[in-house]
Task: inverse folding
């Protein structure tokens, strides 16, 4: 069937106006924004052995293995720790592993493993600060913390049971790396041990002895009801088999008696939902104190070894007062924000303005099924129009991905309101394996323009979240 074409006459002025409108529309996009009370649970896109502590001042204090020092982060919110205030504390020595920050008897203490460049000489050490804020004041080295045996020791933590303090760590039985056992000793003060060490666990089950050397390490304690749950890491930390195990004791028991401790025969938390090797964790509370959260590291992808990232998720309690973690949360399903944490403003990548070669494309794992990418040439950009109620510092959290050939990090260049650009770093886990990139930015009251341009390598953006800084 033939259809007659219909023509509509428009005045020249009208045609010109439509053309101008189209040009303006292509050059600038009105960006949708929505309030969200959820997040995708990467907390840091790089790092291992996360330790987080919620102090009575309402702030979270965080540290992780950085290798050559102890670095502290301070944040009012759990999900913004990566962009928190930072203090670097020099320790001397080499191979600084798994630091922890504790507040005991009115002072701050950092416990960390350190050697002289030879792993055989790893021992636990402690520093003290009496400042109200651990990011302020002076840190004083208190010395090595050890029992009389003075054997290889890492991953030390403190258990406070009533008025008594105990030190728990991972160590060698002798002077050769055959296995790592868990030991406990009584403390006379936060920097001194006054008893012999007592072995309370060693690798025995198949899931603890599937790699050599055999490993029990990363002990962390949490008390619920009358039960002390000592959750530890087992198997090789360099493998996908790394997992968490559990030993328990009654709070009223003699904790220096090995018979007081009971080990569970099955792992408590292991690989799942496409996440591998969860381990070396810590515990904390939501901002309002109503929820319990576990923070842990995982391999960035299967077979990544010691290339790890930090995640967290809430957990509940079993009837016997032991923690129930389930499995690692699905990385492509959002979790509700920790209870008491403020919502953030979300801008989806596909709603941004694009220039050069950049454009939006489909994303199987993206929050809205789309992503912003192809920022492949110097003139390419992805631009967000962000509104701030008042001028001040804000935290930018972007769900990002990098699959640049060669496996290296990449960075985009981020500018705010046409200011100087800064590196916006993205770890390499492969395309569609989303992570988290963050920045502290200064915004004006009203509309602000955030522009991402080509840097080194390639990167994609699922969305950005904006929250006021601490």
Result:
């Amino acid at each position: 069937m033939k259809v007659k074409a219909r023509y509509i006459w428009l005045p020249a002025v009208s045609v010109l106006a439509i053309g101008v409108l189209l040009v303006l529309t292509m050059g600038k996009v009105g960006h949708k924004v929505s309030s969200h009370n959820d997040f995708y649970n990467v907390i840091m896109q790089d790092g291992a052995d996360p330790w987080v502590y919620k102090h009575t001042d309402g702030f979270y204090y965080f540290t992780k293995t950085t290798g050559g020092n102890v670095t502290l982060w301070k944040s009012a919110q759990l999900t913004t720790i990566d962009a928190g205030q930072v203090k670097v504390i020099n320790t001397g020595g080499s191979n600084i592993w798994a630091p922890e920050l504790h507040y005991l008897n009115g002072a701050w203490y950092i416990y960390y493993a350190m050697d002289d460049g030879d792993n055989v000489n790893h021992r636990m050490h402690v520093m003290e600060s009496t400042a109200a804020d651990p990011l302020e004041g002076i840190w004083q080295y208190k010395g090595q913390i050890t029992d009389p045996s003075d054997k290889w020791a890492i991953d030390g933590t403190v258990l406070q049971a009533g008025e008594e303090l105990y030190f728990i760590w991972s160590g060698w039985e002798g002077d050769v790396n055959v296995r790592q056992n868990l030991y406990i000793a009584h403390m006379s003060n936060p920097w001194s041990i006054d008893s012999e060490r007592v072995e309370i666990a060693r690798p025995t089950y198949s899931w603890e002895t599937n790699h050599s050397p055999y490993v029990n390490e990363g002990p962390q304690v949490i008390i619920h009801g009358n039960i002390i749950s000592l959750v530890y890491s087992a198997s090789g930390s360099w493998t996908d088999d790394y997992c968490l195990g559990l030993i328990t004791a009654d709070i009223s028991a003699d904790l220096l008696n090995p018979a007081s401790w009971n080990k569970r025969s099955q792992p408590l938390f292991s690989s799942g939902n496409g996440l591998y090797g969860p381990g070396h964790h810590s515990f904390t509370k939501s901002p309002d104190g109503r929820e319990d959260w576990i923070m842990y590291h995982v391999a960035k992808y299967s077979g990544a070894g010691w290339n790890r990232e930090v995640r967290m998720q809430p957990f509940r309690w079993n009837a016997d007062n032991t923690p129930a973690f389930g499995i690692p949360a699905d990385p492509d399903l959002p979790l509700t924000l920790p209870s008491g944490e403020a919502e953030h403003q979300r801008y989806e990548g596909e709603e941004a303005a694009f220039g050069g070669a950049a454009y939006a494309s489909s994303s199987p794992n993206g929050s809205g099924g789309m992503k912003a990418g192809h920022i492949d040439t110097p003139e390419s950009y992805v631009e967000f129009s962000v509104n701030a109620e008042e001028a001040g510092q804000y935290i930018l959290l972007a769900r990002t991905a990098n699959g640049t050939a060669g496996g290296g990090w990449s960075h985009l260049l981020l500018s705010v309101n046409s200011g100087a650009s800064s590196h916006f770093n993205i770890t390499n886990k492969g395309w569609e394996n989303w992570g988290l990139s963050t920045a502290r930015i200064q915004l004006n009251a009203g509309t602000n323009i955030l522009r991402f341009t080509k840097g080194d390598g390639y990167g994609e953006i699922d969305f950005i979240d904006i929250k006021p800084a601490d």
